[in-house]
Prior knowledge:
By secondary structure, the chain is an alpha+beta fold. The protein has helices at residues 16-25, 50-57, 72-80, 83-100, 115-124, 135-146, 246-258, and strands at 5-12, 30-37, 40-46, 63-71, 105-109, 151-159, 162-169, 181-183, 188-197, 199-200, 207-208, 213-216, 225-240, 261-272, 275-290. The strands form four sheets. A five-stranded antiparallel sheet has the order 11-9-13-15-14. A four-stranded antiparallel sheet has the order 2-3-1-4. α5 (115-124) packs across α6. The radius of gyration is 33 Å and the shape is elongated. It starts with a strand and ends in a 6-residue tail after the last strand.
Amino acid sequence: MKPLFLDEYELTASMPLRALEKLGDGGVSVYDVQKIAPGKLKFRAKSKESEKIFAILRGSCYTVNKCGSAGLKRRLQKLVKRPGAIAAALLVCLLAAAANLFVLRVEVDGSVRYASQTQEILREEGLYLFSAYSEQNAERVRARLMRLSGVAFVTLEKEGCVLRVTFQESEETPVPQRETQLTAPCDGVLQELTVLRGVPLVKEGEKVSAGQKLADCGEGESFAVARAVLLCEGVYTYACGDAQGAKARAVAKAVFLSGGTPVKYEVALTGGGGKFLYTVRLQYLLRLGVNFGENE
């Protein structure tokens, strides 16, 4: 492996390769040897071996000159001359380190049928969007996901600001039973309803309540194929100790928890003295479906 701190040299001799052999016999390793002219070579060696190089070649027919620093040593010397660059580099490192402490995206691999359950369990264990990552919380999430039907193994890996959840299903996983009805998970107004198999129970534009059936399988049918879009409204809170950028985080958390596509929102702020509470009233579109992907 090439050392990080190197110095560059020019060697002039009638037999320059013999000089390199002499350095090697003396325990000096050389790197990036380059012929730049007849009888002249350029090479690099560890910075701490500078005195040793001149001692080995002293009094011989070789002429060696030190050209300057190379590798990481050269970059550090340039940074020392530019304190502003050092400050910027440190700031970038600090921001990157801070970003790695939080969960900015969740990805589910291996089986998409566990995606909704994964998001729900993550929220319940405190690993939602913009939350601080915790190994204890992640282990609790993993233990709960392992209890899901058909899961043979599951891993949670933090890659930068992305939390990746990977499922390995059991080879004996039974085919999931098809759903027989489409149900509203929350209050809202029905915007769209498409039923390919079954019977629609609500008309577009009507208000629906949480748990209300929107479509059901018809007589003699074993399952329904339907999808719907609801216009819903929810109120979400976000508490923090620093108001800078908190409004955007509050809205992002509300959108994440709603599980829908935002239409419009209102944000109210209360508190002070280092304690702030954001209340977000969010109107969003929620897309639902049962067995629909199998028929698209």
